[in-house]
Specification:
The protein is of the alpha+beta class. The strands form 7 sheets. Strands 1-29-2-3-7-8-9-10-18-19-21 form an 11-stranded mixed β-sheet, with helices on one face. The chain has a 6-stranded antiparallel β-sheet with strand order 22-4-5-26-27-28. α2 packs across α6 (about 130-150), α2 (about 65-95) crosses α8 (about 170-185) and α15 (about 510-525) packs across α17 (about 550-570). It starts with a helix and ends with a strand.
């Protein structure tokens, strides 16, 4: 039966109306919030200013004063990333459930137990005046954006049905505290190690949690610099690619600030003023995590009803803090936290109460020196600025146009007493494991113009074995640092762009070592299992490159996982599924090299069992034909937008992946399903115009923006873009007049 003509017209009309309504909704809720990047606006600044955006959407801000420049930084960042900024402050303050409902409760509870909001409030009260002025200028810029854009805010606010409150100084502190927490959380490993000790062999367990390997190149973290003697330009080259969690929007925001006495470009965190990693006219710097342990758990003898607890034979009274977590479409949930002299009662584990001491919570210690860093002109001014940096402890790598390179560790790193390593919970009642102050800045590891003409960093332990203070931390094994040095030594002279080759390198010294161990065990036992021969032949000829599209990296990764379980079970039965530690690879390599008695009666037999179990597991994942396995698919990355990515039908439009990834946790390009290079920067101190930088995805958090993921292809291919500095090719310019 054919539709009548009137009915067909009615259907077509209905479809047209729906289409128009849909397009109208897209325009109203997604297109209108896109930032105004050209034309003219008025704002409460002192004189005419401009925000010029280049082809990547990077704001190049020029103001009459630094206060105007930072004000406009707050405004421009809010234009591109306002929802991300709001989410970061809520994540840190424990206020996610207020807008997302019960799914945010667990995150909120941990943030409340850590007292991040109270820490931020205390920091705001005790800020030095100069630091306060920077945060005030930034907050004014963010709030001017909010005041002038009510009713056309980013799509996420519409989808979650709420309006953001005004930006406060504490919100920038909270954004910083979130990174502090991300980079210094170590209490979980303390509990894990305690549990393993309690049910296993303490000496074996301690072996699996080393603080150093004995072959740690000096110093440590995710950046390097070479002197002019080792470059084709005659001036230093600095490279930086810090590794952090992947996410949408990107972790970093690229920015260029110019005002009298200030000309700096690089990246910052959304919600935080100034440039955190970058260069000015005279110096360049990269930073990455130090890894020194700044959290200690204390087992407290406390009455949870009264808050009275024992300390050195006397009863003390904990302070009770009452709080309430707002939950969308539900009643608020009250929280009660006892706060002891060591910190809040943070954890109830097997009916044992633990408080948490954390350097971030030390009152009156917060400073914000980044604008001072941005204006430093030489090593003396630079180190004077970073000496004020409270944490998270970082490795700062430095180079300047005068030809110098350097390195300095930073942060408030506690002095622990002998026998109190901080690697397992201490007895809070005894008073024997209190901190004896903070390691002085001048006594932290540092180098200036080292003889070999290079400073190489890759998160390894930078503290010498004869260091004056006890050292514990989450330091990386030496594989990445060793490979960086190896590659740098292959050329007498380096061009700046060639540093991309180092940043994208995916050779794993550990994985190749493990592959050779498996082959040697196969040969020693004269194994003939046809089901394993294809896999062992792949390992026999493998070059150690953790490349997508190949099978050997997947085989050796699965072997490592089986080996880690087997060794953990031998140290502490029942720990095979839970043992994970950043230094695990180094510990397992030492075990296989030394093969001490008491662990396994036959190491080759143990390796063959791990190998067979690994091949069985891989067959379940990618089939029985080992040569067809694809490590890239196994190591696939998927980035999901936390709000847009959950939408039915169109959610994938907001996401990236899954995409095959090369690299591993022990390659220079440290890539797993969770973390990877969060940005790449190469600074040519001979000609700053030849410097390069890119972030993972793009500058904008707006899905309809052309800058939402316009950097992804270059990032994925380990390419980069010019860091426009002296010569800016502006594609849009917003003129800002004083109001």
């Amino acid at each position: 039966m054919l539709f009548s003509s009137p009915l067909l017209r009615a259907i077509n009309l209905s479809i047209a109306v729906l289409l128009v309504a849909l397009l109208g909704a897209v325009y109203w809720f997604a297109w209108r919030p896109l930032p105004e990047t050209s034309g003219e606006i008025a704002a409460p600044i002192s004189a005419n200013a401009t925000i010029a955006r280049d082809a990547l959407g990077v704001p190049h801000i020029e103001g009459a004063t630094w206060q105007d420049a930072v004000f406009l930084q707050g405004y421009a960042t809010a234009q591109d990333r306002m929802w991300q900024m709001d989410a970061l402050r809520r994540l840190a303050a424990g206020e996610l459930a207020e807008v997302v409902g019960k799914s945010g409760l667990e995150s909120d509870r941990e943030a409340r137990r850590l007292r991040l909001a109270q820490i931020a409030d205390d920091a705001e009260r005790t800020l030095p005046d100069a630091d306060r002025a920077v945060l005030v200028a930034y907050a004014r810029g963010v709030n001017y954006y909010l005041e002038t854009h009510r009713g056309r805010l980013p799509l996420e606010f519409t989808l979650l049905n709420y309006d953001p409150r005004p930006w406060r100084l504490r919100d920038s502190i909270l954004a910083g505290l979130h990174m502090y927490r991300t980079l210094t959380t170590s209490w979980r490993e303390e509990i894990q190690k305690l549990h393993m000790r309690e049910r296993g062999d303490q000496a074996k367990v301690d072996f699996l949690f080393p603080a150093r390997t004995g072959v740690d190149p000096q110093p440590g973290s995710n950046a390097w610099a070479v002197s002019g003697e080792r470059s084709t330009t005659g001036k230093p080259i600095l490279a930086s690619d810090p590794h952090l969690d992947f996410g949408i929007p990107a972790t970093w925001y690229m920015i260029h600030l110019r005002a009298p006495g200030l000309n700096v470009t690089g990246v910052t965190l959304p919600g935080v003023p100034a440039v955190i990693i970058g260069h000015n006219e005279s110096i360049a710097w990269g930073i990455a995590n130090l890894g020194f342990d700044v959290q200690d758990l204390y087992r407290e003898n406390i009455d949870p009803q009264t808050g009275r607890y024992v300390f050195m034979g006397h009863l003390e009274q904990a302070r009770l803090e009452r709080d309430a977590i707002a939950v969308k479409d539900a009643k608020p949930i009250e929280t009660l936290t006892w706060v002891t002299r060591h910190g809040p009662i943070f954890l109830n584990d097997e009916n044992r109460q633990y408080s948490l001491r954390w350097t971030a919570a030390d009152p009156g210690t917060f400073q914000f020196p980044f604008l001072e860093i941005d204006r430093a002109r030489d090593w003396k001014e630079f180190t004077a600025a970073i000496a004020k940096f409270p944490g998270p402890g970082q490795n700062f790598v430095y180079a300047d146009t005068a030809g110098n390179i350097g390195y300095h560790a930073t942060g408030r790193n506690p002095i622990r007493r002998k026998g109190c390593g901080g690697d397992v919970p201490a007895d809070g009642a005894s008073g024997e494991c209190e901190w004896d102050g903070i390691i002085p800045f001048d006594e932290l590891p540092n180098f200036f113009n080292p003889a070999r003409g290079a400073v190489v960093t890759a998160n390894q332990n930078p503290f010498p074995e004869d260091y004056a203070y006890p050292v514990n931390g989450h330091f990386a094994p030496p594989y990445r640092a060793t490979q960086i040095r190896t590659l740098l030594d292959r050329r007498a002279k380096w061009e700046p762009r060639q540093m991309l080759e180092v940043q994208k390198d995916v050779y794993s010294g550990f994985s190749q070592f493990l592959a050779q161990q498996v082959v040697a065990a196969w040969n020693a036992r004269k194994a003939t299992n046809p089901a394993l021969k294809e896999a062992v032949d792949l390992l026999r000829s493998w070059n150690g490159q953790m490349e997508k599209g190949t099978a050997a990296p997947m085989v050796v990764t699965l072997v490592f996982q089986q080996l880690r379980k087997a060794v953990a079970e031998r140290a502490a039965p029942g720990s095979g599924q839970t043992y994970e530690f950043i230094m695990a690879a180094a510990a397992l390599e030492q075990l296989l090299r030394e093969r001490p008695p008491g662990w396994f009666p036959d190491y080759n037999a143990m390796l063959m069992k791990c190998f067979a179990d690994a091949v069985d597991e891989g067959a379940k994942i990618q089939g029985s034909k080992v040569s067809r396995w694809d490590y890239g698919q196994y190591n696939a990355l998927k980035m999901t937008h936390p709000v847009g990515g959950q939408l039915p039908l169109i959610g994938s439009y907001f996401n990236i992946g899954p995409v095959s990834m090369s690299g591993s946790s022990t390659t220079i390009k440290q890539t797993t399903r969770r973390i990877g290079p969060s940005m790449r920067m190469i600074v040519d101190l001979g000609d700053l115009e030849h410097s390069m930088q890119n972030i993972t995805i793009g500058e904008s958090g707006h899905r309809l923006s052309s800058h939402y993921k316009d950097q992804w292809t270059a990032y994925y291919g380990a390419a980069s873009f010019p860091m426009q500095f002296g010569k800016v090719d502006a594609k849009q310019t917003l003129v800002v007049k004083p109001r």
